[in-house]
Amino acid sequence: MTTAAPLPAARPRALTFGNVWLSLVLLAVMLLYPFVFGKALNFGVATLIFAGFAMSWNILGGWAGQLSLGHAAFVGVGAYTLTLLATPERVPAFFGGPVAPWWGALIGMGLAALLAAVWGALTFRLRGSYFVLSTIAVALVLRLVAINSSWTGGAEGLFMPELPRLFGLDLFDRKVEYGLAFAFVALTLLVTHLLRRSRLGYALQAVREDEDGARALGIDPTRMKVLAFMLSAALTALGGSLYAIYLQAFEPHTLLELPLSVQIALMAIIGGRGSIQGPIIGALLLSVFGEVFRTVFASANLLIYGVLILVITLFAPDGIMGLFGRTGRKLGTAR
Amino acid sequence: MDQAAVTALLQTLVQGLLTGGLYALIGTGLSLIFGVMNIINFAHGDFLAIGMFITLALFRTFHLDPYLSLLVAAPAGFALGFVIQRLVLSRLGDRLNEGSILATLGLGLIISNTLLLTFGAQPQSINVPYATSTFQLGGVQVSIPLLIAGLGTVAAIVGLNLLLYRTELGRAIRATAQNPLGAELQGVKTGHIQAIVFGLGVAFAAIAGVLLMPLLYAFPTVGENYTTKAFIVTVLGGLGNLPGAVVGGLVLGVIESLGAFYISNNYRDAYGLIAFLLVLLLRPEGLFGRTVKRV
């Protein structure tokens, strides 16, 4: 694959600029948020983290077209790795004692990528529904391990220990967390933009649209999908580490169950799979709706997710971004 | 092995087979839907929850014996499935494969959250005198509600087979499963058949819910766990393979019981998942299937 451009890569260049501008506008809005809604920083941090999850999911789900309903596994890997490695009682002195959170986050990313590599290499041979089913099973197995192992705190979960300061900043300060969550979203957005113009990005779109055709062009579909999966998993785990700091205490139930996986996938899908900014818009929309409905329906706030996903699936299969016509349309939706 | 160990093993196997029968019932519904429509129903466990809550509501309101609720829950399940296929799934067109995953996920969320709004989050059970009664069979204790559930499962599966292989409708269903276009050309209204099949699948899940109610607590998200069980059963048996689903259900029940008894009860749910992953990786056509049905 020397000239890997088997897809409608020759889109008008102006479109790319449009996309970049939309990303910059979104980032600017996010930057202004704390100054306008300083009292609702909690909501802001959570929304940004979920936007980052959805962007990370989109690399596999949107670009490679592989529906994962197990991304909670990677959130869990990130959260547990950072927390366990930062807790002195959990890391024997033999191994050098607790690890600073940023190293913990990096190790978590590595572990998540490793898990994705093994899992992807094994399951991407299977087509269609089998991959989806396997993602659910892997996440559930991790959840069972987390519940039943004493090292992971069992069903009660873990408390975040004292953390060293990052450049003198207190990691438990919501403003600092907002900044980190913003950086996380900016990073996933940057990766997506780079991916769009990269060999991997083109190859992924080719595989998504026509796997056999892509193979005929010399693309190794399994390899491309595994790479996308690893990237997606590592970024999700990074967000998971951040999420753990934000939550300060968590249990397997919140971090490793199907609803979280579904929520992440839905944000990306509702916003627009395979589009660049769709996942951010989906995360924003669902967070706002979720928050509103939480006050009305209390714990039944996921009802709105159900209704939205049904409406979107039936009437706007390309998500919110798909509604905006050409500019937002799923890249290369050549049917 | 001494006498006590043999009795314990027999007890575990009986328990496993009876529970497995219920899994088979749930899995058969899912497999039927997959076999004919080529879609995976992610709301399957939530339809089971509907069966449970219908039983609960009828018991609370009219003191109706739980097993009589079958007369309401099975037709209600069928009607619900029929309508959902007509209103939602039939509109997905060529996006059926992925669209159906999302649509049924959405439906599942709507169902579980509606149940939550209606009945609250508190786990609820019904008090029937025979709920905890057992009888002895050569030293092995058999739970009566579990036995009734097992018999109900057999009856439902026999009934489905009679329908599929002895009636004109069954012929049409099998034709639709094998070759939708060919069936359509022979005058089979495949859209109608698919709606009937989805209705049957949902009815099976609802029946399983009724049969489970005397044994378990009902709560709005109870279905999640059973959706997973149904996936495991159908993958063990081979996606879309009906006899496979029955055997898969029994295998899952026995694996869980043996694992829970001889290894650790904490990992009860893990044994099935691991078997599921192994089969997925090593024999995606299922334990007994010959060819992989292209998805």
Using brief descriptors, characterize the structure shown.
heterodimer, A: mainly alpha, two-stranded antiparallel ribbon, 2 strands, 1% strand, disordered C terminus, B: 295 residues, mainly alpha, 72% helix
Account of the 3D structure:
- The complex is a heterodimer of chains A (335) and B (295).
- With 335 residues, chain A is an all-alpha fold.
- Helix content of chain A is 68%, strand content 1%.
- Chain A has helices spanning 13-36, 41-63, 72-86, 101-123, 129-148, 174-196, 199-209, 211-216, 221-247, 252-255, 258-272, 278-297, 303-315, 319-323; strands at 158-159, 249-250.
- Chain A is globular.
- Chain B is an all-alpha fold and 295 residues long.
- Chain B contains 11 helices and 2 strands; from the N terminus they run ααααββααααααα.
- Chain B has helices spanning 3-37, 44-62, 70-87, 96-119, 144-166, 168-178, 180-185, 190-212, 222-237, 242-262, 268-282; strands at 134-137, 140-143.
- Chain B has a two-stranded antiparallel sheet.
- Chain B is globular, with a radius of gyration of 19 Å.
- In chain B, 54% of the residues are buried.
- Chain A: Pfam families: BPD_transp_2.
Whole-angstrom Rg of chain A: 20 Å
Q: Main beta sheet of chain A: strand number and arrangement?
A: 2 strands, antiparallel
Query: What class, by secondary structure content of chain B?
Result: mainly alpha
- The 3D shape of chain B can be described as globular
Our estimate of the beta-strand percent of chain A is under 5%
Rg of chain B, Cα atoms, Å: 19 Å
- H/E series of chain A, N to C? HHHHHEHHHHEHHHHH
Largest protein interface, residues of each chain: A-B, 41 and 44 residues
